[in-house]
From TrEMBL:
The lineage of its organism: Eukaryota, Viridiplantae, Streptophyta, Embryophyta, Tracheophyta. It comes from the Eukaryota. This is 5-AMINO-6-(5-PHOSPHO-D-RIBITYLAMINO)URACIL PHOSPHATASE CHLOROPLASTIC. Residues 319-347 are annotated as: Disordered. It holds the Pfam family HAD_2.
Amino acid sequence: MADSIAATSLIGYRPLGGGLSVKDGSYRRKSLSSYWRPALATELTKEAYSFREEERVPRTWNYRVDTGAARKPGLWPPENRADNPSLHNPLIRQERMGCGWLGAIFEWEGVIIEDNPDLERQAWLSLSREEGKPAPPAFILRRVEGMKNEQVISEVLCWSRDPADTKRMATRKEEIHQSLQGGIYRLRTGSKEFVNILMRYNIPMALVSTRPRKTLEKAIRTIGIEGYFTAIVAAEDVHRGKPDPEMFIYAAQLLNFIPQRCIVFGNSNQAVEAAHDAFMKCVAVASKHPVYELGAADLAVRKLNELSIVDLKNLAGIESPEFGPPEPEPEPELEEDNGRSTTVGVDDIFW
């Protein structure tokens, strides 16, 4: 076949060295054309196939533009969870991706105002005496910090499972607490100054508490911080309190922010746990717990005025892997049972 291709392709051309001959190792004469024709035929065959490959290359180039939507993990630049490709305005997208796009969620007691744990303990003890229930021990009262009253009565203290009875006792407990409080609220040092700084930078803020809404609104008017908070989440708005992240998630929805760009300001490890479960950063304020007990928080301070806008932007700009959506856990592989016995025989001589 190679000889035929060579002969057909070289019609009208003189073969090189057609009249020459050489001697091989056995001193037999061979014509140079016998060496030349197979090699030339192979080259012509390669050229023919390469020409066919060039004909199959499309003339219109459709390169796919990498938008980062299907980006593989580990590539640079990293994916920004704050980006929203559905926004057609590039300036709004750029603002969202910046570290200045963040929301602040404040707890009420222990962060904005001074917290008095003794009043909470006295309210529960007074309610237990009125209802003829056993007095809750101190470690139980520490455990129920930040929970809703209904949640404490039905799930922790187990005083009643009836919703109406539970609601009645929860309302009565709040009345006792308000009578002990006496309508006196005192701002924590540095809290109002810090809130004013956030308002100056147009950072939206939300207030969360397990107190009733009427109690919160009255207290806000008393201390003179009306209009500071964009959203207020009270006991009527959620089903469960801390350490469940329901309050913080609902506050982020009211602020129209993704959880990864919300910073929670709490005063207990329950708040830190709830914030991290909601994929939020948490700044712990050491009001009733020392700083060394709040090591799980992203940042721990004694007063809010110790913070600056730069600190908040640094927290919001961190794309920590632990604050991403949880990866699916691999299913355990079940070992196939081949019917072999797993019992081990022991020789009596061994003993």
